[in-house]
Amino acid sequence: MPSIPLLLLLLLLTGCQESVDPVQQTFSATQLLSNSEIEGFSRADHIRPFRFPEDHAAHPDYRNEWWYFTGNLNDQAGRRFGYQVTFFRFALKPPPATEHPSSWANNQVWMAHVAITDPQEKRHMAEEKRVREGPGLAGTTLNPLKVWVENWQLTESTKGFPWHVQINTQKMGIDLELTPTVGLVLQGDKGLSQKSAASGNASYYYSYPRLKSQGTITLAGTTYQVTGESWFDREWGTSALSSEQTGWDWFSLQFNSGESLMFYHLRDQQGKADTFSGGTWIDSKAKTARLSLDDVELTPVSWWESPAGIRYPTEWKMQLVPENRTLIVRAVLDKQEMDLSVRYWEGAVDVLEQGRTIGRGYLEMTGY
Questions:
Q1: Is the CB of residue 235 less than 8 Å from the CB of residue 81?
Q2: 44-85: per-residue pLDDT in tens?
Q3: Any residues with CB less than 8 A from the CB of 362 and at least 6 apart, and which?
Q4: The whole model's pTM is what?
């Protein structure tokens, strides 16, 4: 929500045999946030105080968590790029009572996703890393903060911000400095984001909804100086979805007015909106208002079929009921499917009202 967003990724191994290497497995979205294999893990089942910078780092008592960046950038000539960088941690078993003498005997599996959307050339590129935590292969540290999967990393300056995201692959690169222009936002009920009825089917969830972003994007050997805005989502928990829930549509929208909106649209087995759908309206000073299913009505307008034969709605009508406003959320490129360990759609969007572009954002869709 990416929040559950991406929750997505590999809630990996909720029930893998020891003889099967989880780093080599693939997963469906419905596996990810299930409530199987949760015994021994902590649960997100009560409101808790958040502590910073400690909560920026890992919470190994919980089964899964992620650090999630998306953004819309422009180069000096106005050329647009969208990007996603996400780090995921998944625990195969609860933490042991005593530490094993070998650093290779580790129950933590890490995954990272990176993607760049280039609307001008109508291309979307995505890559993934998956490793066991092992001796220094992946993990988090504090003072200074570092989150990494091999050579893909998030680091902070000596003063906390700016944060620095660095990704390098043979096909693309991202090197960005990120500084909040709006304060940290606790999502849900004081940071407890309930996703279904059962106690503990929830996550602890906070966001930086607006990060001033500057640096470089590299594609096919060409480097572009870029500036723009990013969104950061941070979640951890042990389970979230019930067996009646099949997927979600997650929106993170940044309006030209300085306001922002996060909304996750959970779907049931019949494809209808689940009552635990919800989100947050954020004003330009980070003052928030919670949104329920009754506040936001979502209707698919047009669909795109991926090469795998999966149909995704890449244009939506979003009705903000209390304000009597109707928005259109439209993908800048239909082809933004992430064909990785978990197949999902994640991409840059424009927000329109009465035919005028009033903002930008990102959309994630799973379970189609």
A1: no
A2: 999 999 999 999 999 999 999 999 999 999 999 999 999 999
A3: 70, 71, 72, 82, 84, 231, 251, 252, 346, 347, 348, 349
A4: 0.89
CA–CA distance, 40 with 28 (Å, rounded to integer): 24
CATH fold of 22-365:
AttH-like fold (2.40.370)
Do 33 and 205 contact (CB within 8 A), yes or no? Answer: no
Residue 102 structure tokens: 């070998």
Q: Can you give the residue ranges of every domain in the chain?
A: 22-365
CB 202 within 8 A of CB 45: yes
Span 319-347, pLDDT tens digits: 999 999 999 999 999 999 999 988 999 99
Answer whether 130's CB lies under 8 Å from 152's CB. no
One-letter amino acid at 119 equals P
Listed in sequence order, the DSSP H helices in the chain are 29-32
Q: Give the SS3 label for residue 288.
A: strand
Tokens standing for 270? 């019949």
Q: How do beta strands 185-186 and 202-219 pair?
A: antiparallel
Q: To the nearest 5 percent, what fractions of the chain are helix, strand and coil?
A: 5, 55, 40
Single-letter amino acid code for the residue at 87:
F
Give backbone dihedrals phi and psi of 12, rounded to 5 degrees, phi first. -20, 145
Separation between Cα atoms, residue 14 and residue 308, nearest integer Å = 25
Do 11 and 31 meet the contact criterion of CB atoms below 8 Å apart?
Answer: yes
